[in-house]
Amino acid sequence: MVDTGTLQAYSLFGGLTVEQIDLIRPLMGTAVFNSGEAIIREGDPNDSIYFIVEGRVEVTRCGVLIVELPEGQTFGEMELLDVMPSVATVTASLPVRLVIISNKCVRTMYSRDPKVFGIMMMNLARDLSRRLRRMDEMACAASENPVGFLRHPAETQTVQSLD
With 0-12 CB in 10 A as exposed, 13-18 as middle and 19+ as buried, what is 53? Predict the structure, then answer.
């Protein structure tokens, strides 16, 4: 399992004490995927948030590369909240090690400590708001200069942070 200090670096755990994170850690899962392995497939159910501890993943939709996510990023948040099928395929582009928080884990946190649950959900809402804002900016840029936007897709494909 990943140590508490590593987890504190993820925004989802912002505002939580070491003790609070240590209460959550036993509920988390881990997984390792080799390069080229699909972690989530577009259209399939997913009920977890994934934290990239090591490696890198590619996010594609309808076969088109949307973004590459490096170590330190998360994915899967939308499906955890809205319980709809996955909107994208996520594939390991390098060997990847993940920490996983499932919907069951989130429900358990809610029943054990509503305050911790509330802090994590507020952090998740902030993260999703930042991503939505970034996507809005990208949509505006594409509409203002669609040819230039299409000529330089690499600029938007690899990110250090979606925040």
Answer: middle
